[in-house]
Write a structure and sequence with these properties.
This protein is of the alpha+beta class. It is built from three helices and two strands. Strands 1-2 form a two-stranded antiparallel sheet. Strand 1 and strand 2 form a beta hairpin. The longest helix is centred in the middle third of the chain and has 20 residues.
Length: 89
Amino acid sequence: MRSTLVSPRFPPEKLDSPSIDDLIDVFDQNGEIQSIVVHSAEYFQYVEGHFNKYISRLREASQSALRHQFLAACRLKWDLGGTPRVIAL
C-alpha cells in the first residue's frame, strides 16, 4: 500500500502502461485505510486505450485465435445462437 498526500498527474504517453499506483492513491494512517482516491480521468484514458488496443488486435488478420476466443466468450455470455427469450411485463 502507498501513502501519499499528492495527487499524481501523468502525461498521456505514461498512461499506456501505468501501474495501479499511478491511477489510485491510498491514504492510510497506522495501517488503516482512511480513503482511496481513483483518478478517474487517467483511469478512463487507461481503460479506453486498453479497449482500443484490444479491438485493433481483433481486427488483425493474424489474430484468428483471439477472435475465436472472443466469439466463444460472447456466445457463452449472451447465449448467441440459443433460443430467443421473450420477457413479458
